[in-house]
Amino acid sequence: MATGVAAWLPFARAAAIGWMPVANCPMPIAPRDNSKKQDELIILNVSGRRFQTWRTTLDRYPDTLLGSSEKDFFYNEETKEYFFDRDPDAFRSILNFYRTGKLHYPRHECISAYDEELTFFGIIPEIIGDCCYEEYKDRKRENLERLQDDQEENMDLKMPNMNFRETMWRAFENPHTSTMALVFYYVTGFFIAVSVITNVVETVPCGATANQKDMPCGERYTVAFFCMDTACVMIFTVEYLLRLFAAPSRYRFMRSVMSIIDVVAILPYYIGLVMTNNEDVSGAFVTLRVFRVFRIFKFSRHSQGLRILGYTLKSCASELGFLLFSLTMAIIIFATVMFYAEKGSSSSKFTSIPASFWYTIVTMTTLGYGDMVPKTIAGKIFGSICSLSGVLVIALPVPVIVSNFSRIYHQNQRADKRRAQKKARLARIRIAKTGSANAFLQSKRNGLLNDLLELTGTEEDEQKPTQKSISLLESQHHHLLHCLEKTTAHEFVDELIYEQNCLETALQTYPSRSPSVSSHDSSTRTCCSRKRKRNVPLPNTSLHTTHSTHQGPLQELSAIRIQCGDPLSHTASRSNLNLKTDESSRINCKSGRITTAIISLPTPPALTPDGDGLHGPPQRRPPQPPSHPPPLSIQTTTSSAGANIVKVSAL
Amino acid sequence: IQICKDAFHVSPCSFSSPDSVEDELELSAVRHRPEGLEQLEAQTRFSRKELQILYRGFKNECPSGVVNEDTFKDIYAQFFPQGDASTYAHFLFNAFDTDHNGSVSFEDFVMGLSILLRGTVQEKLNWAFNLYDINKDGYITKEEMLDIMKAIYDMMGKCTYPVLKEETPRQHVEVFFQKMDKNKDGVVTIDEFIDCCQNDENIMRSMHLFENVL
């Protein structure tokens, strides 16, 4: 429960009067507010600046420094104030948190200083309000990255005991780490450049001598070029193999883009080696040489810019696709039109629609080679329309794509951020909700346990479960939830138990099932049902409880047995408590278990003992029962059927 | 009740009368200042100090001085994390909003609380009857009761023990009517209600439960 609305708890409790007339079960006793002291002003002296606030304001958050007794450590007896030697500016937002329930992050504050203050005062930063949360997280991440960068640089100097493989991998990835790596980096770069230049120069016609016609250099100096090529390929192969060896995850390395480029760069050479003898496929061999140009992409390891460009294109793919699609549409339309327009003229170059594609493209991109021109008037008209629209179709999407890309890129980043934060937010809210619900269930258990222990006057004191002292606020809130349980005659349980119950009900049909089923049958009755839905012949003989059919004394406090020892032994005797064993195992008893207690009153003989105490109203011994008859310390419900069964649920 | 409307109201489409600029600028934020402490002290059964504490808490949550239904539902929902408290909060809101103007001011709030916490049993029962009587016609019909009951059960949420069934609220209503409707005419009047509640020990006892709340 957000303690910011603690002020409304009295209202919510008062409104619970609305449930009273419809409730069939008696309500639990309200917790008493023993602290009758008046609300007082507290002075907080933070480095000389005095803040004042009510004590109850600070008490709203009992798990922080100011809300708990931890602040007593800072109490100054002479001046009767709490002195903190901290930054008063940052303290403002912390105190505002208590006042308004929202924690804000002041933007001018340094993030690490603010974090420190929060930690000092015991406030978790996750509760920063929506308005400031994004800013806070961004700054925190920046700071973290800055620290990380520093750390990485430091790290490079350290780590002496990496094995050879890891050193090599690090050398490959960060050339700045060692001289060898730098040398290697430059050498490979040089050879990539050499290889590319070689490929280019190969085709230049050089030195036409008198008796030979112009030949590309590649054919004149075949051997030289071949040696150069071999050298480059050998270097590249060695590099690839070394990288493959050093990679921490070879499979992942082989799938990465850079390694594919590497492979494509060197493969043609080997294929060429294998295939030189075969004349038929020499054509294909020539084509393969084209792939040598991909060596240029190896430069992207050396250039950050290339990598960014590649990533850009990848992320902008849909926009580019759309551009392509619209262009294609326009081309087809205009090519068709031009073809039919020029069909009439003789010696027209527009022999078919695909042939007109070339004209359309050249015109639309405003290139206008002039190798194909329309001759008819209609053709010229449509041709001009084509070129005009070309300007529109091409020139417009390009800036849109560029701006789109930039927008989408930033948007993606922000959307990812927001999504990640939203998940965390929702998780927080959910945790807070379940936390408060669980707190209630936990306190219920503790309360019941304590009452039972009180009731039996247990000898085994050390088995009292450790109970967190819950604040008055919490106990009042729990009392409210308790009243709701009483009104509806149903109990709050947590998800686990609920699912178990669902399973159990599903299996109800099998009578061979353990007694827990039958207990569940009977448990479909509400605690104070008037009509007995069924008299379940419970095989509860193993229960060491006296049956209520014995018209014994007014109150029979039957066995509340604190079983020590083996928890597994409970299955037989605590047939009806199977459903709650999970919870019970979480109780902090060292080795104790508590079984059911049936406190029964004179009942009509028709009633069979109903050993399940899972949902009986927990009867606490009221501290001062003003209206209860003294011997009867247990409240009863009188139903019209006259069935007075008061059960104490035990865990 | 002094309602000081600040003189600015922003209307979305300002194509109408161009000369009434002031009207257009009238801000719809209503600031509400409650009556003085003495008057409230006289009208309710709270002491001065208690009124101060109540008002501080009230104004903390609603700085504008009035609660509208959504805020009310939010606040009430925070007390019942496992279920859905909005329907019941709606009925509660209508019970507190005695002048039916769509918002609960501090006076309404404190009057209601005064009845609930410091009133006589008769007054409390009256208040409860008023809560159940959704259309405020003086009779509680089965449908009204069913709505209320469903709203209460909604607050329990899903994870309950025993598992909540569809007909549980209806059965509960039947039980209630059996008890309350003496002349079996299908409605419960205020007299039947008060009579029956006064004869029921449990209910009487629970009426005193929250007296020490403040």
From TrEMBL, chain A:
<keyword id="KW-0406">Ion transport</keyword>
<keyword id="KW-1003">Cell membrane</keyword>
<dbReference type="InterPro" id="IPR027359">
    <property type="entry name" value="Volt_channel_dom_sf"/>
</dbReference>
<feature type="compositionally biased region" description="Low complexity">
    <location>
        <begin position="512"/>
        <end position="521"/>
    </location>
</feature>
<feature type="domain" description="BTB">
    <location>
        <begin position="38"/>
        <end position="107"/>
    </location>
</feature>
<dbReference type="GO" id="GO:0043025">
    <property type="term" value="C:neuronal cell body"/>
</dbReference>
<keyword id="KW-0479">Metal-binding</keyword>
<feature type="region of interest" description="Disordered">
    <location>
        <begin position="511"/>
        <end position="553"/>
    </location>
</feature>
<keyword id="KW-0812">Transmembrane</keyword>
<dbReference type="GO" id="GO:0097623">
    <property type="term" value="P:potassium ion export across plasma membrane"/>
</dbReference>
<keyword id="KW-0630">Potassium</keyword>
<keyword id="KW-0472">Membrane</keyword>
<feature type="transmembrane region" description="Helical">
    <location>
        <begin position="221"/>
        <end position="242"/>
    </location>
</feature>
<dbReference type="InterPro" id="IPR028325">
    <property type="entry name" value="VG_K_chnl"/>
</dbReference>
<keyword id="KW-0631">Potassium channel</keyword>
<keyword id="KW-0633">Potassium transport</keyword>
<feature type="transmembrane region" description="Helical">
    <location>
        <begin position="320"/>
        <end position="341"/>
    </location>
</feature>
<dbReference type="GO" id="GO:0001508">
    <property type="term" value="P:action potential"/>
</dbReference>
<dbReference type="InterPro" id="IPR003975">
    <property type="entry name" value="K_chnl_volt-dep_Kv4"/>
</dbReference>
<keyword id="KW-0966">Cell projection</keyword>
<dbReference type="GO" id="GO:0045211">
    <property type="term" value="C:postsynaptic membrane"/>
</dbReference>
<dbReference type="GO" id="GO:0008076">
    <property type="term" value="C:voltage-gated potassium channel complex"/>
</dbReference>
UniProtKB/TrEMBL annotation, chain B:
<dbReference type="Pfam" id="PF13499">
    <property type="entry name" value="EF-hand_7"/>
</dbReference>
<protein>
    <recommendedName>
        <fullName>Kv channel-interacting protein 4</fullName>
    </recommendedName>
</protein>
<feature type="domain" description="EF-hand">
    <location>
        <begin position="120"/>
        <end position="155"/>
    </location>
</feature>
<keyword id="KW-1003">Cell membrane</keyword>
<keyword id="KW-0406">Ion transport</keyword>
<keyword id="KW-0576">Peroxisome</keyword>
<keyword id="KW-0479">Metal-binding</keyword>
<keyword id="KW-0597">Phosphoprotein</keyword>
<dbReference type="InterPro" id="IPR002048">
    <property type="entry name" value="EF_hand_dom"/>
</dbReference>
<comment type="similarity">
    <text>Belongs to the recoverin family.</text>
</comment>
<feature type="domain" description="EF-hand">
    <location>
        <begin position="168"/>
        <end position="203"/>
    </location>
</feature>
<dbReference type="GO" id="GO:0005509">
    <property type="term" value="F:calcium ion binding"/>
</dbReference>
<dbReference type="InterPro" id="IPR018247">
    <property type="entry name" value="EF_Hand_1_Ca_BS"/>
</dbReference>
<dbReference type="InterPro" id="IPR011992">
    <property type="entry name" value="EF-hand-dom_pair"/>
</dbReference>
<dbReference type="GO" id="GO:0008076">
    <property type="term" value="C:voltage-gated potassium channel complex"/>
</dbReference>
<keyword id="KW-0631">Potassium channel</keyword>
<dbReference type="GO" id="GO:1901379">
    <property type="term" value="P:regulation of potassium ion transmembrane transport"/>
</dbReference>
<keyword id="KW-0407">Ion channel</keyword>
<keyword id="KW-0851">Voltage-gated channel</keyword>
<dbReference type="GO" id="GO:0015459">
    <property type="term" value="F:potassium channel regulator activity"/>
</dbReference>
<dbReference type="InterPro" id="IPR028846">
    <property type="entry name" value="Recoverin"/>
</dbReference>
<dbReference type="Pfam" id="PF13833">
    <property type="entry name" value="EF-hand_8"/>
</dbReference>
